[in-house]
Amino acid sequence: MQNFFPNFLNLELTTWIACRDYSSYNNVMLKKLLVTVVLTLTFILPTLALAETAADQKQSLILQLQEQIETLQSQITALSKQTEVAFSRVLQRGASGEEVKKLQTFLSRFPDIYPEGLVTGYYGQLTENAVRKFQEKQGLETVGNVGPKTLSKLNELVTEGAGSSGTIPPGLLTAPGIKKKIETSATTASSTGATPSGTPVVLSVNSTPSGATVTNLDSGYVYCQSTPCNVDITVPPNSINIRVSKSGYSDWTNQVYLYSGQTTNIGATLVAIQPSVITPTGICQVRNSATNIVSFFAPDVGAGYAKIAKPGAKTVTELRNVCTQSDYNTLITSYCRINSSPVKQEVVTYNEKGEWLSIDESAFGNSPLSCPVTPVAPSLTNASWVSLPTTIPPRLDLRIKFTHLKPSDVQSFNVYLKFPNSSSYTKFTYAVPNPSSSVILGDGTMLTRDSTDKTNFEWFHTDMASQPAGSYEIFVTATGNGGDSPQSNTFGPTLIDAPIISTPSNNGMVSSLPFTIKLSDAQSGLYRAYFIFKSSGDLVWSYSSLSTSETTATFNGSNLFTAGQYRILVDSYDDPSNPGSTKQKYAESTFTYSPSTTTSSLNPRTSNLSAIHYTLNSIKAIVEKLSKLLK
User: CA nearest 399: which of 384, 414, 379?
Assistant: First the structure.
């Protein structure tokens, strides 16, 4: 009895101390030890005290027990300060939480391992790279995941940093001592020249079919993305579980044994995943005339066709009801991604073997449909003013010339004209004319196409004489079944207010010839043409200036024989051979010709009578001279 209790306590204490490194067992043993102590103090000690009262020789035993209890209490106090390990979770890419933050805090102490130093709580690519570098420095397999071996190494470093106190201070994870420990460990590993985690071996993986991914099932690490491949692995472990996988095939998994200094060859045969059985049904289809009808089991889109199955619809009548225009629009979009020829819209029925039975295209019309095309932009080559002063009334046209390299892609052309003082463009739209023909709108505009070069077009606005003066802007676009082209380049023709005809100024009366036509407010740098018309509209005289400095013209009246009303028109333009983009509006004026009554202007009858009178007077004078001679 005297030696039993101390020996019992020593046994419990020894057992507890041996297991204290296991955090899960630690708390259980601590509680057990505390219960043992309490029971001892409560029941056994009084009994022994009574025994000592009965016999003084037991006094020494009591003293021994008291010393034993004091020793036990000091050990309990020290052990109660022991903290759990800093890292306890297996971590890999995609993990999150406080454990990840502790890991990132630890790694951020080492710029060569974790230069980014981000503490986000998310285990991403940067954290994975840092773990690989840590594993490399510690001589572990660089898998990038925190597994049992990496956890053990992390906790070893942290525990050493805690020291003899048994308590892990808050700043320990970033303490310089830990950094020194890691650097020393890495230096030692490199100085010995040994492979820290074992002897290198090569894992050579081939698969049928090739192009498969090889993954370590234990760590989740991907060894390679496409077979065949050779993977360098270190030993231990002496065996690994791997998976070889490829889309459309069942995974191949196996335990592979690795032998130091040897190459382990693996051949994985992948089994294709069989598609579910599909029962042939009717389809909606677009197809060009040069393509044969394909099997029901053919891909949905191919060279010359695109199709979509309609489950349950097996007859032409049923397919006409379920194949919508929206279906065909989708099919044309899919078809035109890899094809360009025009197609027809069809419905097709099939037998159980997927062979076509009947076809019908009448439900959606027989006209082929073209793939949507967005035309290229037209190219504007010229914008000019065209004068037609001899028409009644005189006409002033704005003309543009443009080219389009592929008119077959165009459904219509759009001419955009912005008038002076306007913030928006007026749009004129024309169907593409045939060569040497025109498309005329009721607003005084038209589009023509060259008969020789079918890529050349001309557009006219024939009512510009009544339009305001100022700067105009004009450009062209082309519209195809795929939308509008980018706009062409922009031209800016200018129309200037008309000059003023200052003479004749005698209230519009002309009584003698010749007379001079003078202009005021004439735009400098322009040539001019002068015209005089009878009131009937007949042209009686015209004159074109030879230089831009001329602002007058003299009318001699050689072709004017009768009195009456006349109209003067002056046209101003910037190039006499090729009217350009600057134009001054027509100047117009009227005058009345009324000749004065002078001898030179007597009518023929009056002139004859005067001549007779003159002759008679001459004869009378001669007779008087002869009479004087005869006397």
Answer: 384
